[in-house]
Design brief:
It contains no helices and ten strands. The strands form two sheets. A six-stranded mixed sheet has the order 2-10-9-4-5-6, with no helix packed on it. Strand 7 and strand 8 form a beta hairpin. It starts with a strand and ends with a strand. The mean pLDDT is about 95.
Length: about 110
């Protein structure tokens, strides 16, 4: 069964850091690009970071460039999102998925607040 499970969210103060994990199973992970998305209440889901298969090319939304880093561990079948210098505007539920993936997990909540 194809499954992607997000973890690592929590409550953090502005300027703090979190590392999110996306654990994949049930498919050939290395052959797929993986994206991180986020969705804040009342707003549509936003693509924030992506990493390609094999070559590992990365791309980021302008709002997170210089603060977030996406990377993958093929041996662990896991993609990570390192988030530094967090701002209140980063508060959202974060999801991972393959491009055009038809199913979504529960995501992991990130709250940046004093």
């Amino acid at each position: 069964q194809v499954q992607l499970v997000e973890s690592g969210g929590g409550l953090v103060h502005p300027g703090g850091s979190l590392r999110l994990s996306c654990a994949a199973s049930g498919f050939t992970f290395s052959g797929y690009a993986i994206n991180w998305y986020r969705q804040a209440p009342g707003k549509e889901r936003e693509l924030v970071a992506s990493i390609s298969s094999y070559a590992g090319n990365t791309n980021y939304a302008d709002s997170v460039k210089g603060r977030f880093t996406i990377f993958r561990d093929y041996a662990k079948n896991t993609v990570y999102l390192q988030m530094n210098s967090l701002k209140p505007e980063d508060t959202a539920v974060y999801y991972c998925n393959v491009p055009r993936g038809p199913y979504w997990g529960q995501g992991t909540q990130v709250t940046v607040s004093s």
